[in-house]
TrEMBL record:
Its main location: secreted. The keyword Zinc-finger does not apply. Residues 1-26 form the signal peptide. This is ADGRL3 protein. One of its GO terms (biological process) is signal transduction. The lineage of its organism: Eukaryota, Metazoa, Chordata, Cephalochordata, Leptocardii.
Length: 310
């Protein structure tokens, strides 16, 4: 059910960065490294997404939510990360409708949880009813766990559903400075949409004028910056790592394509890459295992991946 009505529909990639004071609590500079890999579970496959609340409220500090497939309508909630590792489900939430029937199922793995609400990309109607997706917009939904109800639905004005053989490209969500950010595409160009975290009204649209490089790692937003990466190596036969192709400052609109910031991450394809600034962690899937890395903010970027132990 919706507790409010009259929202426009949309398909997009969303990113959210959080804070009550206007800046993310963990921000001490740009994202400079990922380290300290920990395996959480290795029995869930590659299609799920583990989420933790990016708000600072102690009520949800330990909770875990899990969406087990890249599209579906049943969300699992766990009391703690230990309970998640042990498979002890606390409760479940079922979204109305189902995939393929025009309901409110999610699509992709770019979701976030913020202030006890789930934000996700809605499964596109064009796929539900088998018509061309090229003229359809992405839809972002806010689902309140306390109310067990949808409270907002917003269509992103410039984020199109890019049609490809297996369906549209996904949208990724993030929280930054108390707003939700949606990362979408328009004719292959990254479009960043800032949304109000309560009603999903559009607060700002940024055309990065930068093309999606079709990377092994989803684009992400953290601490006021947007990052796009590609797999690369500095020398022939050297370690293959991830490096930035674009670092975009959301406040100044400065576009940095000259900096090559290297990240010591395996270059296998991944659709799920969720940074939680409250914990200084990123959750992702590697080799069919759900893993986490510690995120370092500030300091110097790694200039040469030769030291990466990948």
């Amino acid at each position: 059910m919706f507790v409010k009505s009259g929202f426009a529909a949309v398909f997009v990639a969303v990113t959210v960065a959080l804070s009550h004071s206007g800046t993310s609590l963990a921000c001490e500079g740009p994202v400079t490294s990922f380290s300290g890999k920990q395996t959480i579970r290795d029995d869930l496959g590659i299609d799920g997404a583990l989420l933790r609340d990016q708000d600072t409220s102690p009520y949800n500090a330990d909770k875990v939510w899990y969406l087990p497939t890249y599209t579906g309508n049943t969300i699992e909630e766990y009391r703690t990360m230990d309970d998640f590792a042990a498979g002890k489900v606390l409760t479940t939430y079922r979204l109305s409708g189902s995939t393929g029937s025009g309901g409110m199922a999610w699509w992709g793995q770019g979701h976030i949880v913020y202030n006890n609400a789930l934000y996700f990309q809605r499964f596109p109607d064009c796929l539900s009813y088998s018509y061309d997706c090229s003229n359809e917009k992405a839809q972002i939904v806010r689902y309140d766990f306390s109310l067990r109800a949808f409270t907002a639905l917003q269509a992103l004005p410039t984020a199109q559903l890019s049609h490809w053989a297996a369906g549209p490209s996904y949208v990724y969500l993030a929280v930054d400075a108390g707003s939700v950010w949606a990362i979408g595409l328009n004719n292959g160009i990254f479009q960043l949409t800032k949304l109000n975290s309560q009603d999903l009204s559009v607060e700002e649209i940024i055309d990065t004028e930068f093309a999606d490089p079709s990377s092994n790692m989803p684009p992400f937003i953290s601490c006021g910056k947007f990052y796009s990466t590609v797999p690369d190596r500095t020398v022939q036969y050297g370690p293959l790592a991830s490096r930035t192709t674009l670092i975009f400052d959301l406040a100044t609109k400065q576009k940095d394509t000259s900096t090559r910031a290297w990240y010591c991450l395996p270059t296998e394809a991944r659709r799920y890459f969720s940074i939680n600034s409250r914990e200084n962690k990123v959750y992702t899937v590697e080799s069919n295992a759900l893993v986490s890395y510690d995120v370092t903010f500030g300091g110097s970027y790694l200039a040469d991946p030769a030291t990466c132990a990948i």
